[in-house]
Amino acid sequence: MLGYILRRCLAVIPVMLLVAVFVFLLLRLTPGDPAAIIAGDMATPAQLERIREAMGLNQPLHVQFATWVGRLLQGDLGVSLISNTPVATMVADRIGPTLSIALLTILMSVAMAVPMGVLAAWKHRSVADYAVMTFSVLGFSVPVFVIGYLFILVFSLKLGWFPVQGYKPLGAGLGAFLSNAFLPALTLSTIYVALIARMTRANMLEVLGEDYIRTARAKGAPERTVLFRHALKNAAVPILTVIGSGFALLIGGVVVTETVFNIPGVGRLTVDAILARDYPVIQAMILLTSFLYVLVNLLIDLSYSIFDPRIRY
């Protein structure tokens, strides 16, 4: 088991190295002079030269890459061109709301989607099955920002149950946190629930036709035991894969959701950096997002061996 975990962790290194190369070349291979892009059209030659010297753009490409990677390994993500603030500090100030809402979204999505998928497979071709499939189609079809504004209209403006915008950290109290984070998490959950429920249903339908399911029922096992202990456990590996793959949708949805609900997270930071052409912040956000995506998929891969011990071999 330890060897399996070590091999999977080592496989992450070349992936992150390729991501680092891409992020590094993102600015360097942009058409035109990177210093001119950063400084703007009204910059003087002296200002352009100072920017090139400050960013090391006048050095060979391999030297620039080695210097940049060395700073990354020390936790130096660069300095914002707009606010002149270390990027690591900016990310540290903004990552709390994003992680809180992302974790709440995952918990809500799995808690809703897995029972929905199991119910749809158990009651195949029934009203419950058609209802789950209809929700899945709508969840994929409607954009996230439309769902967010719809929830604001219904739950905030009409019913007055939740605030329209804003964020309160968990330190302010669980009630205040959930009051502000519930609607953004519910908005993100719509796509995630649709994806997981659809995959759960498909895999459960396949597993429920196996011989060992019929044997368990013939032995008189309760239907709940058959569904969750025998069927769901054997269908869990593809479902976990979808949860990991769906994390990419979650990353993209956070950017839109934080803008709609005015949440000071990394999604808003990314949008502001793109609009301001703040390249150090953009590079740091791409690198951080890629690392989180690879980390989640690594954890999903390691969890496979819990449900199917044959995978570790």
UniProtKB/TrEMBL annotation:
Fetch the InterPro entries from UniProt. BPD_transp_1_N (IPR045621), MetI-like (IPR000515), MetI-like_sf (IPR035906)
* Transmembrane spans: 9-27, 99-122, 134-157, 177-197, 237-261, 281-307
The UniProt entry's GO biological process terms, in alphabetical order, are: transmembrane transport
All copies of domain ABC transmembrane type-1, residue ranges: 95-300
What topology does it adopt in the membrane? Multi-pass membrane protein
- What keywords does the record list, in alphabetical order? Cell membrane, Membrane, Transmembrane, Transmembrane helix, Transport
Source domain of life: Bacteria
Q: Name one Pfam family in it.
A: BPD_transp_1
Q: Where is the signal peptide?
A: none
Q: Where in the cell is it found?
A: Cell membrane
Q: Name one GO cellular component term.
A: plasma membrane
Family designation: Belongs to the binding-protein-dependent transport system permease family.
- The protein depicted here goes by the name Peptide ABC transporter
In its UniProt entry, the species of origin is given as Cereibacter changlensis JA139
